[in-house]
Amino acid sequence: MATLSDVARRAGVSPATASRVINGSSKPVTEELRERVLQAVAELQYVPNAHAQLLARSHRGAVGVIVHDVSDPYFSEITRGLQRVATDQGRLLMICNSYRDPERELEYVELLRGQQVAAIVLAGSGYHDADFTRLLNGKLAAYEATGGRVTVIGRHEHSGDAVMPDNRGGGGLLGRELCRLGHEHIGVVAGPRVLTTITDRLTGLRAALAEHGLGLPEHRIRYADFDRDGGAEATAALLDAEPGLTAIAALNDSMAIGALALLRARAVPVPQQVSVFGFDDMPMARDVTPALTTVRLPLVEMGARAMALALDPGAASPRVESLAAELIRRDSTGPAPR
Amino acid sequence: MATLSDVARRAGVSPATASRVINGSSKPVTEELRERVLQAVAELQYVPNAHAQLLARSHRGAVGVIVHDVSDPYFSEITRGLQRVATDQGRLLMICNSYRDPERELEYVELLRGQQVAAIVLAGSGYHDADFTRLLNGKLAAYEATGGRVTVIGRHEHSGDAVMPDNRGGGGLLGRELCRLGHEHIGVVAGPRVLTTITDRLTGLRAALAEHGLGLPEHRIRYADFDRDGGAEATAALLDAEPGLTAIAALNDSMAIGALALLRARAVPVPQQVSVFGFDDMPMARDVTPALTTVRLPLVEMGARAMALALDPGAASPRVESLAAELIRRDSTGPAPR
DNA sequence: ATCACTCACGATAACGTTTTCGGTGGCGGT
DNA sequence: ACCGCCACCGAAAACGTTATCGTGAGTGAT
């Protein structure tokens, strides 16, 4: 690997001047020497060692992001927003998949801290787990104490900058729409109950139903994996236990798509017999058949805002940006049959 | 930021011993000192500076990946495979999105080289662009000359280790299935013609059709963006020009989904009047309606193999692993109407 | 012709680790 | 009591870069 000294030697200058011309500028260098250095760089195919650079000028450049899984469209979208403003500001983005493993999440915080990132963005739901939360907050506090910035997306447990999708409000939209359509026998296909996202959406939904005098008994809620197959599984269990359901409210679009697949397999007409609701409005939601009625969360926007917050050094006081949910009516829902 | 010297000072030892106990092992250290160091680490919340470590022991740990866009399911799947074996081997994965911009691709090669990554994986189609190819190969060669490893996925232009999906063979499967179903008026919805993936799939398709005495005139091929909206656009153009088509062959699933959306919007029954074929078998393909007939590429497997190749230092001779395509029949295709 | 004075460049000290290389102490063997 | 040996630890040199600080030569003015 060619080093800066190699370049300097070949150009017949000192490493210092070589560094100067390669950095672009700052201090003046004669045109002739600049030429020679540039040529040496080209001949040796020299690329600066990023680690040495980072070490020398302690200029934290990169930004770390911890998400559940970039393959998951929910996080793909958020990541897109993060990427956009990060690269706009010339920052390198380090993406880490925690696969919702708290242990791994802690490890990644350490790793990113070791990488001297300028900021850490934690995206995705928090957990109902006091021990873990304390541990995580401890690590984050240590990071912040040394000048690092932390921004969370959709997690209550951290007390710093945050962008929060209105999960409760979204649950409310869902509940009111269910009532408007006259559904009374409603099954809920939910993700793992340790996720705060799930409980938030559920409480919003429950509150809205209560406004119309409807309860949401626990046996009408099935908790499963927060993905397509979990959705199919939970829907099957729900229908087996209670064949009279007229609506399935899935707490994310992946699960809703699993629900649709299962209903199609059982030849249950949607929405004539059973209506299906999703949550998130992933791009795929409009392409399934019937197109999915869902609660839209501005995912890309959430990512962009979070990165803007993370990169803006201002405001000692924690800033919380709340982003509203929006109901998107499509073809998978209709009035309750009677 | 607490440094190793801080830890050493607080523990009353030299930085050398502190380093020894933190590294886990190598040289023996008395139990008592080890205790003291560990406690100092805990108290100071010390995390080693990764850049300094990388610099000191020039142990290249991370691996870089350049993909088009991780949000794109095609690359999400590949990335999943890459991730799996990378983390299995304790490697950190750096993911870079080129958004199919050759310029950015070159930049990322430099960046990854600067990061001293152990290997670079280039995923996605190559370009029909001799100048760019020469430039890229130059940069890659420089990287390999200094001990870096390069593995490509689905790109012909690099002469090292490679994992190649059988795009031509897949095109052939498509062509033979079209003939088997009796289609003669076939429109092709293609991505940008500069992508070698597109031309490979097209030549395979063309060859198979020719075997059955069918031609594929250029006006039956529409080139558009390699995504959903491009698929809808190309399908519209195709149908407007030639209403009598009985089959649409899209060269990836995203485009096929766009085609389905457009056909639904125009109330064209699929597959009764027009059959739709996809390519890649992304997870979403089975969830659209009608479920998409497509050519499956083992995407996760491709990623896993590529990473295995990249991390296995053996074999000076370039290894090329070819992975077969497979036809997946679903509901979006049927016999040609007459 | 001397003197400040700028200007372009080179030494050199960081940055935070790892690692090699001596050096100290204690131990058993003759 | 002396010598070698071993086990453990600290001093110091790397790693590749940036940034500070001099230093020499060249300028203009006096």
Automatic annotation (TrEMBL), chains A, B:
Q: Which UniProt keywords apply?
A: DNA-binding, Transcription, Transcription regulation
The record, for CDD domains, names: HTH_LacI (cd01392), PBP1_LacI_sugar_binding-like (cd06267)
Protein species of origin: Micromonospora sediminimaris
GO terms for MF? DNA-binding transcription factor activity; transcription cis-regulatory region binding
Q: Which positions fall inside the HTH lacI-type domain? A: 2-57
What is the name attached to this protein's record? LacI family transcriptional regulator
